[in-house]
From TrEMBL:
Residues 542-648 form the MaoC-like domain. This is Aldehyde dehydrogenase, PaaZ. NCBIfam families: PaaN-DH, PRK11903.1. Gene3D superfamilies: Aldehyde Dehydrogenase, Chain A, domain 1, Aldehyde Dehydrogenase, Chain A, domain 2, Hotdog Thioesterase. CDD domains: ALDH_MaoC-N (cd07128). It comes from Limimaricola hongkongensis DSM 17492. Keywords: Oxidoreductase. It is an enzyme of class 1 (oxidoreductase). InterPro entries: Ald_DH/histidinol_DH, Ald_DH_C, Ald_DH_N, Aldehyde_DH_dom, HotDog_dom_sf, MaoC-like_dom, PaaN-DH. The lineage of its organism: Bacteria, Pseudomonadati, Pseudomonadota, Alphaproteobacteria, Rhodobacterales. Residues 22-501 form the Aldehyde dehydrogenase domain. The keyword Oxidoreductase applies.
Amino acid sequence: MLDAIPTEPRRLESHVAGRWQAGTGEGQVVADAATGDPVARIDATGIDMGEMLRHGREVGGPALREMTTHQRAMMMKRIGLALMERKEELYAISTATGATRSDGWIDIEGGIGTMLSYASKGRRELPNAHVIPDGAPEILSRDGSFIGQHILMPLEGVAIHINAFNFPVWGMLEKLAPTWLAGMPAIVKPASQTAYLTEACVRLILETGELPEGALQLICGRTGDLLDRVACQDVVTFTGSAATARKLRNTPAIIENAVRFTAEADSLNACILGADATPDSPEFDLFVREVHREMTAKAGQKCTAIRRAILPRALVEPAIEALRARIEKTTIGHPGDAATRMGALASTDQVEEVRNAVEAIGAEARVAIAPGPVPEKGAFVSPCVLVCDEPLTAKAPHEIEAFGPVCTLMPYDTLEDAIAIANRGAGSLVASVFTDDTEVAKTLGRGIAKLHGRVLFGNRASAKTSTGHGSPLPQMVHGGPGRAGGGEELGGMRAVKHFMQRTALQGTPDQLTAIIGQWMPGASRRETDIHPFRKSLAELEIGDTIVTEARKVTLDDIEHFANFTGDTFYAHMDEDAAARNPFFEGRVAHGYLIVSFAAGLFVQPDEGPVLANYGVDSLRFMTPVNAGDSLRVQLTAKQINPRETDDYGEVRWDCTVLRDDAEVVAQYDVLTLVAKEPRDL
């Protein structure tokens, strides 16, 4: 069990090449955000950064790449579930960061949930393989003997994650999830102010025994010459200020080696209230509630927090009064107190930074709600609301971020003005729009999307289900253009691909099939005496094929199918009308009749290894089929995906339906579930 925060500061350790190691210097004392008492001492002096990189590249990387995507996903699931079982140990430490229980939930369970989400998405959306096809094959020659296919494979370096202080658990886990799923090892460098919580989480992860050696290393303290040693297969991610992001991005080794660098920087996120809103409308209430929540959750220390609240000019005063009523009910105090609704900033340095930022913004804005009294000890700041009456000409409110419980109201007169105000942030992580008018939503959405990584629309219909303005989700992109850093963390598989190399393969279909492990168009087919549906995964091979007997389509078939299904579309039933259609010469067979006949031709009906058909992908009808045409099917095992925890797997079959043994009339993938081993029937 992890101990609660000690009364005397302890020396944090880094995890280096499989061992815990303390720095050799005096280090920096880190204080409890709520009490000011010492919590830990942080220092990385004497850590061999070259050893860490070598260990990740030579030990962690090969071990992760030896695993398939599904094996890595299952590893992440087990780690996530183990962390969830011990989450209370992290909550006990989290209060020292200034986080209330609800703030900690975002950080701790939000981070664990993100890892579990990626574990699930990896098993659902990626093949259980070492090589991932990216997109469809490209036929590069007229006869199909030369084709192309993009693939994704893990980079063979180390992902270096330099994280911010505000989310010491989520900030780490939301980056580790796509990194590990992609097959890369990681070095995590947390911000000093809250590194003790990150270190505790890393200890819990390593104690699970689930990670291969070298897959996770930790630096508690300065990175030294780490970034001077990066190479072309490494990745660097950074969360923090735009100024620091620019400095790191210009590290000579990063530039010279074209190292992938992604940043999530400070962001002047906007929330816009539509022109259709009134003080008594649900959208006005939602807008005020969201602005207040984003000011007080994590004491406003969220990269997605609303910094600029844009609203019709006539609603400024009603909004001030509504916010004042909510702020007056917000109890500020020790985050461990159940009555507390807003905790402390992460450090006293942050308090000074917020006060300086408010002063700078105040040069072009008036204070509408001044900060109130706060506890004497600790890094507390009370909410502050400013109003910039002329936001189209002001500069400071669009350029300076007060990273705390501060928001500036900005009135607009037209929707075009609202768009211009929002876009003056020069690139943000997220904007939200509260309106019940779809035309207002369309105008604002199309106007601001290009400068925002995510745009949330809220109204009375989604009030109970919306995740709200500031909640990054594993499925959606987290990042933004311009000032926000230009990165794309999260976003489902988009984030995973950042840690993989996309390569264009060109060659013969047989060569690419061998490399990728998936049957390519034009590759060799193997017809055997045993129907492929009689083979378990242990017996089935990529390229196993059945070519069926032919079946002639008759006019009676077409009419029976139409009357039986109710699909009496004129092209199937009326010869003259069908002939007037530019695509047909006369009555044609239904597309789904073709698919049904194809199944009747290729299916082996006896009980056996094939357990179920669970769908088709990429169905296309290429050429019309008329009465009198004969159909034949080529069915080829295209991709085999055994499931890690089940006694069956998925088989993707290439299904090609031919007319009169020559012309392709339909093409699609058939998806089946097949037993791993022969069934004893």
